[in-house]
Specification:
The complex is a heterodimer. Chain A contains 12 helices and no strands. By secondary structure, chain A is mainly alpha-helical. Chain A has one domain: Orthogonal Bundle (MetI-like fold), CATH 1.10.3720. The chains are: A mainly alpha, B alpha/beta. Chains A and B meet through helix 1, helix 9 and helix 10 of A and helix 2, helix 3, helix 5 and helix 6 of B.
Amino acid sequence: MAKHANPDADILDEVQEPVNEQVKGRSLWADARDRFFKNKAAVVGLIVLFFVTAFAIFGGLISQYEPQTVDFSLMGAMAVNGSPSIETGHYFGVDFEGRDLYARVVQGTRVSLMVGVVGALVAVVVGTLYGAIAGYLGGKTDDVMMRLVDVLMSIPFMFVLILMLVIFGQSIFMLFLGIGLIAWLDMSRIARGQTLSIKNKEFVEAAIATGVRPLTIILRHIVPNLLGIVIVYATLLVPQMIIFESFISYLGLGVQEPSTSLGALIRQGTQQMNNGTLWMLAYPLFFFLITLFAFFFVGDGLRDALDPKDR
Amino acid sequence: MSILSVKDLRVTFDVPKRGAWPWTPPMKLQAVGGLSFDLEQGQTVGLVGESGSGKSTVARAIVGTVPATSGQILFEGTDLASMSVGDRRRHRRDAQMVFQDPLAALNPRMTVGDIVAEPLTTHYPEMKRAEVKKRVGEIMERVGLLPNLVNRYPHEFSGGQCQRIGIARALIMRPKLLICDEPVSALDVSVQAQVVNLLKELQRDMGLSMIFIAHDLSVVKHISDEIVVMYLGRIMEAGPTHEVTTKPRHPYTQALISSVPIPDPVLEKARPRPVLEGELPSPLNPPSGCVFRTRCPKARPDCAEPKDRRQYENGVRVDCPYFEVKDALAV
């Protein structure tokens, strides 16, 4: 083993490629992606999610009717003539007012997904930055910032949101505002907790010693390292937001006519349950359930992929 | 003029009492108590002591991540505490640090190239990307890594390689002072030798001054010109490496040296060793007088009196009035 007389030999031995060719590294993200795609339930969830999203975006293209158009030819005989059929062009049948349910479900899915994704996005951006800054700065700043979160959390949000919707009128903007206000609180706590453990790592100290500015440290060293947990939490937050919005809409306080959401459609479906028009409930409920299941499976898969230690 | 001069450095941390009111004064933990030493241009000072003796705190105070409570740290004649923002930035460039845990010191989400380049991109944001890349390649080669590994991530490297990356990051700014905080204690013995030799070589080529921290005297003596032996934040003995390692005077130094194994079973078995009993006392409540007296085999009643115990002999400072010169068998 004469070659080991050279102290660098073990290092040079490990790489056989020519020196001038750059070696491609495997990031932790690439590892996580591989683990995710090995998880069958998560992949199925992702595919379902893909189709639901495609349905929400492009479903309107094959619809024969506008979501707001009332089909007067069916008036009075909805339970008989308004049932789902290819011939009439009402693929999912019509709703209790004679509007095409297929077009309504497309629109409702779009609104529900949007509410969920926007809510989760607000949570990720605001919550992560807020929590990371509080955790990194520490001390008094941390105390003040986190006590504020505690105060906001102690407010019964469903109650306040309903009051807001009653006082300021029911609009989708109000709904977004209400969901945005509540969604980031949990996220900021999670981000802060992670930051507290990351900021004591030596690579953060190395950055401080080098003279990197605090905001750069947070964005370059802290946030990428807590992103794994944040992404997992965000994917699990999306279905929560959808349920939240559906509940508000179910109470009749959420999305207003002529717009609709899955929650509003389910509410209308349940009201017609005794009239022999079960399809009015079945189709929105089906899309509601598969979307939620898909999000939960994807979230689960991401958690297993991104922090394998916690399995 | 020495490049670094530490004068009576004290670092005290506030430790809040458990379950106390927010306004009750916190307990004081003195991590470093009255440390002084000088570092000459191109020389190496070794800081030795067991865990909890304040070595790392000294390093952090010198790079400025921990504020000194009192005393002075003069870097090229300027006190760190009185530096302006610009001076402090220059000091950050001139004094770099190598960390103990090689993998923990590298951000797992960044490529090695980005990690090594970070000091450059921080201090010279206007530098061209090609220039940065060239400098990164040069320094990687300098520390014995192939420059084509820049796109890899830290977890793809061994401990020794990670430590080389850490050294490359510290040296890319061409600092004047390199502080190595136990750079080899997390590595295999064979890799330790490689890294120590690399550091020596780099020091010679780049004219670096170094502070080398370790708890293992046998490593420190290879690289240091002077050794400072610390215990509970205080100096026990300080002097030229040869004097301290071959003729230890302070009972603590003698105990440290006797704990280094001799690679000869017969000698190893035969030698008498003053084994230290017990644990390091709590720095929240240090012993009065000489802090080592609770574990010292030669402790006498007057060791508890608070007084200056500094003695000088043959260029060695010993903080014990009852010291005896003892020949060390081997280190």
